[in-house]
Amino acid sequence: xxxxxxxxxxxxxxxxxxxxxxxxxxxxxxxxxxxxxxxxxxxxxxxxxxxxxxxxxxxxxxxxxxxxxxxxxxxxxxxxxxxxxxxxxxxxxxxxxxxxxxxxxxxxxxxxxxxxxxxxxxxxxxxxxxxxxxxxxxxxxxxxxxxxxxxxxxxxxxxxxxxxxxxxxxxxxxxxxxxxxxxxxxxxxxxxxxxxxxxxxxxxxxxxxxxxxxxxxxxxxxxxxxxxxxxxxxxxxxxxxxxxxxxxxxxxxxxxxxxxxxxxxxxxxxxxxxxxxxxxxxxxxxxxxxxxxxxxxxxxxxxxxxxxxxxxxxxxxxxxxxxxxxxxxxxxxxxxxxxxxxxxxxxxxxxxxxxxxxxxxxxxxxxxxxxxxxxxxxxxxxxxxxxxxxxxxxxxxxxxxxxxxxxxx
Length: 409
Fold this sequence. Notes:
With 409 residues, the chain is α/β, with parallel strands linked by helices. It is 39% helix and 15% strand. It has helices spanning 3-6, 26-40, 60-69, 84-98, 114-125, 141-148, 173-178, 197-210, 238-241, 266-277, 285-296, 302-321, 352-363, 388-403; strands at 47-48, 108-111, 131-136, 152-157, 179-185, 213-217, 242-247, 260-264, 326-327, 334-338, 342-343, 365-366, 368-370, 376-380, 407-408. The chain has a 7-stranded mixed β-sheet with strand order 2-8-7-6-5-3-4, with helices on both faces. Strands 9-10-14-13 form a 4-stranded antiparallel β-sheet. A two-stranded parallel ribbon has the order 1-12. Helix 2 (26-40) runs parallel beside helix 13 and helix 3 (60-69) runs antiparallel to helix 11. The longest helix has 20 residues, at 302-321. The termini are far apart.
């Protein structure tokens, strides 16, 4: 690596130590363990329960809109901060699905996926020394950008004792004074928990009392099983203190299409649009047109929702019968469960990373470990299975492999 450029790298990325960090991050560890397992036994079937992306493609009806719109000459232009048609439909979707009134002109804007949106939001709020309140385990992007901007992170642990909701009352007063942003995500990745209106009412009160903006990441809001996840904005006063981000990736299997929208507080949405205008020139208009069609047809989600519900229920049954503590997921497509202490054959697991490594190397089952608030593993119900018979075969194989061990809890 060039010494000249090495000394040019910004301190936020490590400065002249950029690229020299010898720490191996967990996803790289998983990748190496998978490679080693397959080299050891090339004929083995590796069941990948770690991929957090839909296993199916977008519904044909949505793809047909894209195909039709892509041939129209007028759709070739930059869309900048989005076409009004998509904003109108997004506002109508919020009203019909969650009984939330959104002004389609001033209170909603599109984003090229929710991840860029979550990355841009700190630019609207964070000054050096400000604090972002981030839940762990959780999606780290907003926290990472907070650090880039000279801010700090205060972590809120999601524990089973607190129903995987953050304990806002436990936040020290000095942190509250410096906090500028509270990031929430329900239904929650990875725990599968949902948050009720009573919790959101508490969040609104907390935000107003402490002058903290709320960002609710609702990427999985349409994937619930039984009890519905309310929109944060459906609570009185929520629009005064925050915004909500909705993604089309998970619900409509549109992950690679990159389309989401930010809605809520008019000033914060305008600030987001200002930052976004300096970052990109908008998502391709035909994709926005297809996204508008998707939001007008939420019934397209039903088949996907039923599939995940079925898979999560079966996975939960398998693990529970073996003695695992499983947080029964009320939403998302993840199963979050506590690792065993070891096996009767003498293996010991000090943390989830060790158990994850054991699962890959000895059981040929890949997953994602979380050691932020207890020692848990995350299974994703998005594994590849074209038919119901194939799905049942994979479930049976998981049960068979895990049944070979006597786990100690």
